[in-house]
Amino acid sequence: MITIRPAAERGATQIDWLDSRHTFSFGDYYDPRHMNFGPLRVINDDRVAEGRGFGTHGHRDMEIITYVLDGALAHQDSIGTGATIRPGEIQIMSAGTGIQHSEMNPSPTEPVHLLQIWIVPERRNLVPRYDQQKVDVTGRLTPIVTPDGRDGSIVIHQDASMLAARLDAGQTASHALAPGRGAWVHVARGSVQLGDRVLEAGDGAAVEDESAIALVARSAAEVLVFDVPLS
Question: pLDDT (tens digit, 9 = 90+) per residue, 83-136?
Fold first, then answer.
């Protein structure tokens, strides 16, 4: 079963420096029909104005993933990390027992476009940590966040995997799903076909009770797939 979450139906936060779209309930946007998909709790599609960003604030007991599509994002945190995240990189911050951090657009001239993803960890009160690395997702669905670090992916404290692909028009990608697991598909840009449905940039889809997903790029596209337990 495939259930589409159209981009235009997502929640929104719009202020002078931030244009954010929320796939699931977040902040002032609340919809009991869209709270999570298994342990996948947040997909925020953020555009941050030049020289602006999220000042220092706290999190705990959440696995927070940042995926930059355009521009750059500067990160600082209370465990001593200072880093800049750019396209072609993946970052994870395990908030655990508690962490303070800020995320700013360091460019004086260009906005930054990013996806911020939250996944509920398998247990509470983990030791806070930060990790970041380059990824190559050209032409195939590539595991970039996994519970076991396979294929050089970043480790997450949850039985969940995040895969990504950049596809040219006409390229295909597939992913098998084990029993009891589902997939959330998020189209970051471009257009893909999932089964008999066409997804455009910003659209999402919940895939349940299926043994696999198959994607066909209808234009140059970038897509994320989250493989998560549903029980």
Answer: 999 999 999 999 999 999 999 999 999 999 999 999 999 999 999 999 999 999
Spatial contact of 205 and 4, defined as CB atoms under 8 Å apart: yes
Q: How far is CA 200 from CA 6, 112, 124, 218, in A?
A: 8, 20, 36, 9
- In the sheet that holds 18-22, the strands lie side by side as 11-14, 18-22, 40-48, 112-119, 63-70, 89-94, 129-134
The whole model's pTM is what? Answer: 0.96
Record the tokens describing residue 17, joined without a space. Answer: 């420096």
d(CA 216, CA 191): 9
DSSP secondary structure, 177-193, as one string: --TTEEEEEEEEESEEE
Angle at 97 (CA atoms; ends 92, 102), nearest 5 degrees: 50
Grouping H, G, I as helix, E, B as strand and the rest as coil, residue 38 is coil
With beta carbons less than 8 A apart as the criterion, state whether 76 and 101 touch. Answer: yes
